[in-house]
Automatic annotation (TrEMBL):
Top-rank taxon: Eukaryota
Transmembrane segments: 276-298
Hydrolase keyword on record: no
SUPFAM superfamilies: Fibronectin type III
Protein name per its UniProtKB record: Fibronectin type-III domain-containing protein
SMART domains listed in its UniProt record: FN3
CDD domains: FN3
Amino acid sequence: MMLVVNPTSINIIWNNDKNATEYSIVWIDVVSDITYNDTVNGTESFYTIENLQPCTDYLVILEANQDGEQLQTEESTRTTSQAPFQVTGLNIMQNGCNPMSVTWSPVPAVGNCNISYNIFWNTNVENETQEDTTTDTTYLIEITSFDPSINYYNISVESCAEGNCAQPSYEQQYIADINLAAPVNLEMKNHNTNSITVTWEAPNITNECELTHYQICWEDEMVPETLSPLITEYIITNLTLGKSYNVSLVAEYEAGFSDTVTLPARTTNPNNSANVGAIVGGVVGGLVLVALVVAAVVKRKKIKKLIRGNKDDKTFDMVIIV
C-alpha cells in the first residue's frame, strides 16, 4: 500500500489481490479518535480519502476481503499538510545599537496546523546565511558589527505548517550610521616626576548604545589599557621624569569605538630649577670676579703711579702688584 498525502486528502494505491472480492478502507482521526470507513469492489486498486483536515494525523487501514473473510490487512499513519499563506506586512526597524526589530502580520492557521516562521538574514559582505525559527510575529536580530563595509541586511521570513512552507517574503534593511560619542573634557589633574593623573567625563549617549569600556594609551605602539566604563580618572605610572606624553582616550561600545580624544602631558623634572639656579649663580659669580679683576688692575695702576712718582725721583723703586 502506498499513501500520497495532500493538504485535505490522501490517495491510497495498492496491488490488486486476485482473490479479493472487496476492499475495506478505514481511516481514523488520531486526535479526535473519529473513525470513517468505505468499501470498494475487488477489482479496484486506488482510492482517495477526501475532506480531511490539514495538519492532522490519520491512521489508514486497508483490508482485502473475500466474501466477508479477511485475506490480508495493511495500515499506516500519515499527516496531512498544507502550506500556509505567505507572510505579509514585513517591517524592519533599526534603533541605534538596539537589536534590529523584524515584525510581520500573523498568518491565519488552517485546520489543525500550527504556524511557525523561519527567519533568514545575511549582510552585503557575508555569504553565510543565519537562520532561526519562532512562533511569534516579532524577531530581534542582534547587530553584531557596525563595520563600515556593511551597508545593509538581507532578511526574509517564511511561514510553515508541519514542515510545509509558503514562499518567503523578502526585505532589505540599510544600516544607518551611528554616532558613537567620545569622552569629553580630558584633562590633566596632577603630575609629578613619574606619573600623570588624567580625568574625563563620560560621553553623552543618546542612541541606546551600551558603553562597555574605555581604552587609554600614552605611548606609540603600546597595547591600550582597558578600563571600566565607570572610571573617569586614571593615574599613569612608571613614567620618565621630564618627558612629554600624548595621552589618548577612546570609548568602546558594543557597536565599535568612538573618535579618539588626546591630551599632551608631561612629567615634572625637579633638576630643572636647580640647573637654572646654578646657571644664574655662575653668571653672577663670574660677573663679580670680572669686576674684582678690573678693580684690582685699576688700583694697581694707581698705586704704581703713586709709588714711582717722578721719573727723576730715585727714592722709590718698589712695585706693588695687587
